Amino acid sequence: MEDHRTAITTNIQNYRYRLKNIKELSLPNDDLGFLQTFLDSTCKQFQSQIRVDLNYLRPTQHLFEQMTATIRGMIEVKQAESDRILQETLQANEAAAQKREQKLELVVTVVGTGLAVSGISSQVATHPTKEISSAYQEANLPSYLGYSFIDIVIHLLVGVILATPVGIILWCCQRK
User: Fold this and answer.
1) What ranges do the domains of the chain cover?
2) Would you say 170 and 106 are in contact if contact means Cβ atoms under 8 Å apart?
């Protein structure tokens, strides 16, 4: 509205200037009264109408400013709640990731212990079936299916047997 008021004021000044120029260039019997009437009555009516409109709008402008401030406050509250929920979710995800990592470390430790024990037992006793049951040697079985396979199974069982208590102890320590 202020912009319109400024535009109308500028246009009135320009109109007055042009009307003055037209009067100077017109003939003495030319009737230019309607142009002066437009300037005197209609332009004043436009200016007064804008003043009235501005007087109506100024009180509501304060209400609009308050409403805008209220909406901004509501948005800030919602954003803060959203940020808090996001932070809680991120913390929960981080805690779950740490738990998974601890479980993975436990599994890797237990499996590593079992494989290490199996490796050590295979180095200490390369053919445990020959040492344990030398009386039960069957000459008919091929070595890759017979004793070699049984030797591997025995070494893996030794690893599992010794890794299981280690896993249980570590699991109990992590729970505390």
Assistant:
1) 2-175
2) yes
